[in-house]
Amino acid sequence: MDKHSYNVDISWTEARKGMMCSPELEHKDTQETNCIEVATPPEFPGGMPHIWSPEHLFTAAVASCLMTTFLAIAENSKIEFVSFKCGSKGILENVDGKFVISEVLLFPEVVITDESQRERVERVIEKSEKACLISNSITSKITMDIKVSVQN
């Protein structure tokens, strides 16, 4: 596969807040941009509640990569499922005087209709985490608590 690039532009707006946009996510027919506010989280001086922070985005990148990788592997493996969702938690720590997300906990939940597929689905979730490009690009520990349930 060739190299790909993903462009993101950040502009400061006020205080500890800015706007994050990507020219690649612009709706070509309406010229609307797909932007989100980003800010320092409230745990830090001057931080703002209720706005996406770099820490949230980091954690979201890991969780969303697990989902998209699972969707691709499940499709290629002809796995049928009713739903996929994944909670996540990024753990921020001060390590050797630097703030790091030391661990990302993932809580993937998949609903299936065939009990005989439970172990196979669990293996695909584990394979998805190992194949996730974001997980492979970071030094944070990734921990999963997998839940597969059967819809009656």
TrEMBL record:
Pfam families: OsmC (PF02566)
Protein name: OsmC family protein
Species whose genome carries this gene: Subsaximicrobium wynnwilliamsii
